[in-house]
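so i finally got all the pieces together for this one. its four components total, 1380 residues if u count the protein bits. some of the lines might not be protein, just check the labels. i wanna see the whole assembly predicted at once instead of chain by chain like last time, that was a mess tbh
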Amino acid sequence: MIIVMQSKAAKAQVDEVVGRIKDLGLKPHVSHGEFRTIIGAIGDESLLRPESFAGMAGVEKVMPIMKSYKLASRDFNAADTVLEVGPVRIGGDCLAVVAGPCSVESERQLRDVARATRDAGAALLRGGAFKPRTSPYSFQGLGEEGLRLLRDIGGEFGMPTVTEVLDPRDLDLVIRYADILQVGARNMQNFRLLADLGRIDKPILLKRGPAATIDELLMSAEYILSEGNHRVLLCERGVCGFEKSTRYTLDLSAVPNLQAATHLPVGVDPSHATGRRDLVTPMALAAVAAGAHAVMIEVHPDPERALSDGPQQLTPKAFQHLMAELAPIAQVVGRKLQTQVKPNT
Amino acid sequence: MIIVMQSKAAKAQVDEVVGRIKDLGLKPHVSHGEFRTIIGAIGDESLLRPESFAGMAGVEKVMPIMKSYKLASRDFNAADTVLEVGPVRIGGDCLAVVAGPCSVESERQLRDVARATRDAGAALLRGGAFKPRTSPYSFQGLGEEGLRLLRDIGGEFGMPTVTEVLDPRDLDLVIRYADILQVGARNMQNFRLLADLGRIDKPILLKRGPAATIDELLMSAEYILSEGNHRVLLCERGVCGFEKSTRYTLDLSAVPNLQAATHLPVGVDPSHATGRRDLVTPMALAAVAAGAHAVMIEVHPDPERALSDGPQQLTPKAFQHLMAELAPIAQVVGRKLQTQVKPNT
Amino acid sequence: MIIVMQSKAAKAQVDEVVGRIKDLGLKPHVSHGEFRTIIGAIGDESLLRPESFAGMAGVEKVMPIMKSYKLASRDFNAADTVLEVGPVRIGGDCLAVVAGPCSVESERQLRDVARATRDAGAALLRGGAFKPRTSPYSFQGLGEEGLRLLRDIGGEFGMPTVTEVLDPRDLDLVIRYADILQVGARNMQNFRLLADLGRIDKPILLKRGPAATIDELLMSAEYILSEGNHRVLLCERGVCGFEKSTRYTLDLSAVPNLQAATHLPVGVDPSHATGRRDLVTPMALAAVAAGAHAVMIEVHPDPERALSDGPQQLTPKAFQHLMAELAPIAQVVGRKLQTQVKPNT
Amino acid sequence: MIIVMQSKAAKAQVDEVVGRIKDLGLKPHVSHGEFRTIIGAIGDESLLRPESFAGMAGVEKVMPIMKSYKLASRDFNAADTVLEVGPVRIGGDCLAVVAGPCSVESERQLRDVARATRDAGAALLRGGAFKPRTSPYSFQGLGEEGLRLLRDIGGEFGMPTVTEVLDPRDLDLVIRYADILQVGARNMQNFRLLADLGRIDKPILLKRGPAATIDELLMSAEYILSEGNHRVLLCERGVCGFEKSTRYTLDLSAVPNLQAATHLPVGVDPSHATGRRDLVTPMALAAVAAGAHAVMIEVHPDPERALSDGPQQLTPKAFQHLMAELAPIAQVVGRKLQTQVKPNT
């Protein structure tokens, strides 16, 4: 950690900082420049809290050298983590497409989607049973009935399933049914839930919050990893921005940016990010071209009558077209598309 | 609701929209303009879901006329809601200052702060017992011991208390100790928690999420109100922005903006918003000048040694100076400053 | 235009709005709903200024039906505009890669880049002669000498050239040398400059400002089109956001979003958007997958010694690798890659 | 400057960095930590360009110690700069209110506003003659006729005048008429214009761009200062954000934040920031409470018929009410309100 003192900082203030660094077991290194005194702290930086120095008298700024996450970092683990979920691999050079309706609405709806998306090349089946809705007056999901349908129909088509855990009190229930547990963007900093998920033995799909930086997302992953669960799939799904013709601003540069910083696989959800059906396909293709390990696409047999997020759900036919372009792009960038049916080469 | 059709929309597409409006029990009104066909839906708009129309073929855009929240709106309740918490009133022409440390750390720390802030004019005592920390390796709060200290010392100085509920599983515990339950910014869209808080009989301090619009904040308040708890204090605490020399961008225009839209009282937390001690005092004064009903200030007897958020906590002396300017500004804008000791005139 | 009156609006206020609509030559249509009175204005909406109604007593909100740009819209011109610059086509199903150094620094530097990028498949040569630098103490470009080098070396390799006009007083000079004139992001709302460029006979590359919405970008294009110059290439180059590990947040969804709204071609500049060499290649590929008509890449023979923007410039070798992946992706999404040498199949 | 090497950086890469620091005339200081090698550059940091190091092989990040602006910094000039414009002082403990219409529309309009605002306590008269309008089809200002009216009526009421220079080609004209020249938010990084303004002998009001950081605003001020003009008034006028019920997000914390970093006076424009008349008064009061040295308020005798920005302009009566609260708040925070008539106590 580097501590820059104000130009008018007194010697006593410098001594105070030096003293605290020593107290914490590190070695201070003081450098008197022409304009500023700079103090380096040599040793295990994780013993220092930057904010405790930032508040000291005479300190201008504190610059940590190390990232505050460890287990999630490339420094800790240089090789890509590859998640295995049933026959599907996510990470490294493996790319999986996750498809399904925003909300599970009925057995027929889900089966139609599962069949169509699997045939088109999707590897995993998604569907919401507990829905976080902005309005208390909106459809809130089918609950356990939705989970059961998801498990049964996923099994029927050989597709491992992904669904969201909205509340820690639902955790035991959701674990019984789903293969991958999703943490929604609004829960990305629900630290108690993250710690709970760190103690279970299923992969976690962790979505980036709309106001979360890359570092904050990785700190949230660290909560899960630090409790022992090392199977985390990160997911970019749009950040808040000033443009209002799309729901969020999809930050696709987060894909290679995260991949440089972490060994964990990185997915993209273009459906929630854009909120517009006409933008989902180009953004899904772009995500693959950018190197994503997973792409999540909302598909509904009749989007105009969907109980949630209709405007962003693709029809099965549109999904099929999407996959016809996605597969060759995956090949160009060296990704093996995971499918349930036959190799896509 | 107004539905604007695309310029090239077919008659069959217009008929489809008209048919759905009728199915939902409203009266459609079609207007063929020079460039666009426009369809109005006359009747109870809350029966329509804008998104279900937005996804229909031939629709260009859907413009709701009504807000999606009701109980929180000025239309529903024109008069200001005034919360009463023990002897303290918040809302209307009453302004309360909430002070206390970021985290409750020890009996002595909390008592020093309570005494100093009450003497300077604070009406309520705040302090965190369960802390949402970005890093799993940071201090997470004293838990129940912190709650007990808060209740006891609040009682000692006649200050009602405010503390955060981080997880629905802590709710029963926190209710037993605190007078006002706070929902942190990261939980603003934890809809299950909001619904739970709607069923209790204590005021709720609801913080705006860093990526939440004014409407989304009011929809979150609606979750609480719709379950029966009408005592909600909204709180602006900074939104995400591109400026990095402050932690967040404090959106003070949210104060009059919210007050125009809702009857609920509106507070401001300049400590978390700025993250910088030197900005807390001017922003607290600005909040009062803008018409806030509550101001939350973090105060610590020795901020340099605080276990969390040191750089933004004021010393008791700085808090005293703040109050010496805050009180006359409150008077200028017609607010009665609530105090525990003697009227501030 | 739809005008929604406040729930408590008086009849006289409604009459005032109705009267003004009539005064402006449109036909008012008043609809008294259960909760609100709504007034439609039927006729040529461009005669109304929404803001003049928004400020009237009793008005809650004003909702325009039409976009405020015309010539730039798909409604005005359904077919894609294809720009022709020498032998190169941009727009429709044609994709051109623009490559070159951030700043023209020397004859040798520019020739090395031109040869290497043309051989790798770039169609146009870019290079800055007048540089907008945040700091007055930074390198400001070679000026006319840079323009001359650009023209000569572009000619040598058969590459039409692109360079930025920073100030209207340079316009006559730049026109003499360059084939496409670029308006930088910081000048996107320099309306006088836009109008000047609307009166010349060369294509304009118009970059999106970092705080500009899609609509604002199209309004700026409208300034150029409305003066008679119909050859405009729009360019997404990152918007301001809260993430600080990249320079801006590249909004790739702007590509299909713009293409739905306008007939003008849309390009992407991943170099300035990310500011990081390691992100340029994945973002360039993603841009093509998203359907971009042009991609601008900064290339420098020795980026570590570049006089500006070193960290984001690719080496010629890295550019060659980029093109090896870009070409087949262009083919998948149906774009014909424009090259100077031989077809890229 | 501190350069942090990647954990796997080779010795040759460290040597390369060390060599370049020496070449540039500074003294390198290498520190081998447990996880990273860190290189400090001791000497005049302004000789180094951070970006040239950021692009070097093996470098993880570059952390400048010094700000990139000098003349604008508190380090350079610890005492507040106070601008004198005729009898009016801006800066230090002096606060001036600038009032007037968005656009100068007619002699009568301007005279009505000037009289009313001067009587209510405004010190300076503002009015636009060249208007930057988003749409080419909107009113663009009266041009020189507007400048003449502004000068004449300002003179009549003893109010120095403020108006915007939109284009460097108008500079000679505007100088002849106005007392303070305004650089609009969209021109904040029009560096050529800034340099031109640095060579004239009139104070400059420099507005913050909607996507500009505090540092970027100060770098733009530096352009003016570095050419010799030391009279610059900075002005916060809202930054881009995700909230759409206000035009921009007014960042009031910029006031004390800037005042900590620079000696230049800092003003606030709540009219353009909010775009809503009902928010202008609370935000103007808040700006003064936050310590602003100037507040700019748009006033129009009949805002509903204004040719630009009607919804945000106050009536003369509303302005009078604003001043009745503003004056005592100025007193509380130790600001002397500059007036043309009589002391406001």
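Residues 246 and 274 of chain D are 5 Å apart (CA to CA).
Chain D has two domains: 2-63, 83-338.
anyway lmk what u think
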